[in-house]
Structure prediction request, 164 residues.
Amino acid sequence: MTSETLIGDLTEKEFVLRYVQPGLVGLIDGTLSTLAPIYAAALLSGTHSALFVGLATALGAGISMGFSEALSDTGEQTGRGSAIARGVVTGGMTTLGGSLHTLPFIIHRLHPALIVASVVVAIELITISLIRKRFLDVPLRISLVQVALGGALIVAVGVALGSA
Prediction:
């Protein structure tokens, strides 16, 4: 696709600026920022705590990121479209990213819940990398290394604090 290809009534560039980039920011933030609190809570207090800490973190981060995106740029200066639409996309994707790897903590046994959550995180990070490759032209290998490094650092913080 070129920048002239239309998606609805938008060019691909406009679609990326208005929806993909805000959604990607939310997905990355939701996936990564919730890892440390979830893993720390799981190790300190078990799966029940991890589930509720994860849901609270995902919802809180979604609201925060939605407002941050909507209030940081009206869209008129940058051509990025409606602030409200971008805020909803960013907030929704942040909540989704944080919730997906929280749900495995419905499993009452810690070890299996951690394994399933880690698999979900890996799928989330691969998805982020594929979106970056498709819409931002970031080579897949580089993107995988970047997002995996971020995820590993944040999980290490959660494990370190959860083991304290």
Observations:
- The beta strands are 6-7, 10-11.
- The first strand starts at residue 6 and ends at 7.
- The radius of gyration is 17 Å.
- Residues 11-162 form one domain.
